[in-house]
Design a protein that fits this description.
alpha+beta, eight-stranded mixed beta sheet, 15% strand, globular
């Protein structure tokens, strides 16, 4: 982290999404960190096999569903989102955005590239409009009656409820946790890595380990409306009110390895076109 205007080498990088974490690793600007504390506090599926990055909080990529037009139990699996029953009822942001690319990467990992291509084509066929805006814009569209369901990250519910203008959008939808067939709900991370040029390595490691502690996990997760990664740390009351779910146990490193294939599929099917 650096203070504004400080041009000295940074010790750590904090960012969101497995793709962005993997990009900085691939760029060669991070270094491996061996820490018994981090290994004990952060599940193996939420950290890099080579100890280059570590997840600090998770967010689920879920479905926001209209309270008025979608019945309880109607949304089930990610696979089902490509079925004809959702034709003209789905909104989402760009298929080329990291969040959707990671989800498609998980589809590839659970099935294969051929299936994932058909799934992306089905998802595109079900769009109520061309992809536009961010996740909150999709919820706004549901409130306006433009679509019935939308893909989005869980923490946006917390952000909408904190904005008086957006509260009506949030109140128009339910959060639904789809699962993969034979798996769980897709999750991604906010994470941390130590830079290769870290001038204060010992202090940086201490900070990384502290961020994985009970106290810091609670503060961090409550601040960004996400789920703590350390087992046993309670969610905030607001996040807990969204319901429980079973996170998919697919390692994020596996999802990251499918990023190039997922991007190619989104471009091939011209998802945003």
């Amino acid at each position: 982290l650096q203070a504004e205007g400080d041009r000295s080498p940074a010790d750590i990088v904090l960012t969101v999404d497995i793709a962005r974490l993997q990009q900085i690793v691939d760029a060669g600007v991070t270094q491996p960190v061996q820490s018994d504390v981090l290994e004990a506090n952060i599940p193996e599926t939420l950290r890099d096999p080579g100890d280059q990055w570590f997840g600090l909080t998770t967010r689920a990529r879920i479905v926001y569903a209209s309270k008025d037009r979608v019945q309880p139990g109607e949304v089930t699996t990610y696979e089902d989102l490509a079925s004809d029953k959702w034709k003209g009822r789905l909104c989402t942001r760009s298929g080329l955005h990291d969040y959707n690319v990671a989800l498609l990467g998980a589809v590839i990992a659970h099935h294969d590239a051929a299936y994932a291509t058909q799934w992306a084509e089905g998802l595109k066929a079900n769009l109520a409009r061309k992809p536009d805006g961010g996740d909150r814009d999709q919820v706004k569209a549901i409130a306006a009656g433009e679509c019935d369901i939308a893909l989005g990250n869980t923490y946006y519910m917390g952000q909408m409820l904190a904005d008086p203008e957006q509260v009506p959008w949030a109140e128009s939808v339910n959060i639904v946790f789809p699962v993969f067939e034979g798996g769980g709900t897709h999750v991604n991370v906010s994470g941390i890595a130590m830079t290769k040029a870290a001038p204060n390595r010992a202090a940086a490691l201490t900070f990384m380990e502290w961020l994985s502690s009970d106290a810091a996990q609670k503060i961090y997760a409550e601040t960004n409306h996400e789920f703590p990664v350390k087992p046993g740390v309670e969610r905030s009351a607001l996040v807990a009110s969204w319901g429980s779910f079973t996170p998919d146990d697919l390692p994020l490193s596996t999802i990251a390895s499918e990023r190039a294939a997922a991007l190619k599929i989104m471009e091939t099917v011209d998802f945003d076109g």
